[in-house]
């Protein structure tokens, strides 16, 4: 479990991270979502002690990161897959991690197999790796100590569709076995597919957080009916805002079960009923836009 | 994807012990050799030692060849290369950004820095011992080939001075690595330190009489040069010169650099 408590990081008068608090629960994948420059990476660097927080604390399973005697065994970290010495081979980079953690040598080959890097690829220098291969190597470095907690910054970057699918299954499996997974992304779809909980950050501040289901409900419903105007009127009578789009669908500010129930009571036959299509994306853009309009941090 | 699930290969959970400094040092030592640039930099120490030995045999007048001639000749390129080894051991963590992983696996930065200092000194001492060995070989070969008299004119004390001088030079590189934390900048500053400044001080000392007596107290290269002279034991004043210049040119900048390294963000 990762507990972020009131973390603020200032650079002079600029506040990169502003009083961020959230918890990444064990057994769940927590998606850390925000546009570029929102403070995701800074928050993650604060978690592992690479950046000092101006105020606030982060604990991992109740302990500060710097107090972990051998952090690699408790927390797997991937902050930037490109941040490796270009002149080392992939295998050498994994070997360094294995030696630091005091693990058996066989772990290196096991991890190369887990992330599907062939022996030939592993003996090439990282300078010749594609971004996708670097991500795989970085994930192998994060996993080699068999940690309970994973902190991954944009791990899907550069992976091909099959690789993204593979990583999603891997992280899902990790969380299902009781691990804590925190991953950041600006790829909304990726987070929407994999995350159980979502923390959204914009301009250094958390703009929304909660389980994915909760957040998606907040995004509203798209509904079509044989008599769409009658449905709009029926919803309006109950104070549910519903706007008719150009393609004849109704966007209702309520979750699908409620809209369906009201349609049944009003005796209107529905032809389509679902959570708002771009749900998270709309929410994401709307929330981050709001945070930008607010101007100076409070 | 044919990847197997990570739970098939879970490691037996090891007991959590603080990573010992000896292990960190071993890994840092390994990291000095495991890149192409690092490997060739260290290999170049041995290669230039052999080249210098051959050059001495071929070009130097045979009747003047003694053991100290060989050691000095080998020691010159080595004194240039060793600080570079120390610089790159430190700066690569920032310039190549591998520090992101290193300082995450070992979150106490002073432990990594200490390990790097120890491993750099180990490389330095081993290199100088290699210089002594190659120099001895050269001395033997030369005497055998030319039937010149075999002269062993490096005392144990002078040998220690030579080791110490090289370690001090290497630590100047280490200090610059810590202070500047960028390979190009640190290497450039190192050349200013060891070639530009001594030249300026030399010109000053030659032309300004007031500076001549001051030079041993100001010029770190001049002060440490006594360690490479093979002229018997150093005087108390010479030691004092080394201490004073060392304080201003090495210890104080190192302290400033360390203060920044432990606080600075690793990006």
Any descriptors?
A: 298 residues; alpha/beta; 4-stranded antiparallel β-sheet; 11 helices; elongated; B: 267 residues; globular
What is the strand tally of chain B?
A: 0
Oligomer: heterodimer
Return the average pLDDT of chain B rounded to an integer.
Answer: 90
Structural Rg of chain A: 22 Å
Question: Helix count of chain B?
Answer: 11
Average pLDDT reading of chain A: 89
Shape of chain A: elongated
Would you kindly provide a brief summary of this structure?
The complex is a heterodimer of chains A (298) and B (267). With 298 residues, chain A is an alpha/beta fold.
Describe this structure in words.
The complex is a heterodimer of chains A (298) and B (267). Chain A has a six-stranded mixed β-sheet with strand order 5-6-7-3-8-9, with helices on both faces. Chain A has a four-stranded antiparallel β-sheet with strand order 11-12-10-13, with helices on one face. Chain A has a three-stranded antiparallel β-sheet with strand order 2-1-4, with helices on one face. The radius of gyration of chain A is 22 Å and the shape is elongated. With 298 residues, chain A is an alpha/beta fold. Chain A contains eleven helices and 13 strands. In chain A, a hairpin with a 5-residue loop joins strand 11 and strand 12. In chain A, helix 2 (90-101) packs across helix 3 (106-114) and helix 2 (90-101) packs parallel to helix 5 (131-143). Helix content of chain B is 76%, strand content 0%. The longest helix of chain B is centred in the middle third of the chain and has 38 residues, at 109-146. Chain B has helices at residues 21-33, 36-59, 67-95, 99-105, 109-146, 156-180, 183-207, 209-212, 215-218, 220-225, 236-263. Chain B is mostly helical and 267 residues long. Chain B is globular, with a radius of gyration of 22 Å. Chain B has one domain (19-262). In chain B, helix 3 runs parallel beside helix 6 (156-180) and helix 3 (67-95) crosses helix 7 (183-207). The chains are: A alpha/beta (298), B mainly alpha (267). Chains A and B meet through helix 2, helix 3 and helix 6 of A and helix 1, helix 2 and helix 4 of B.
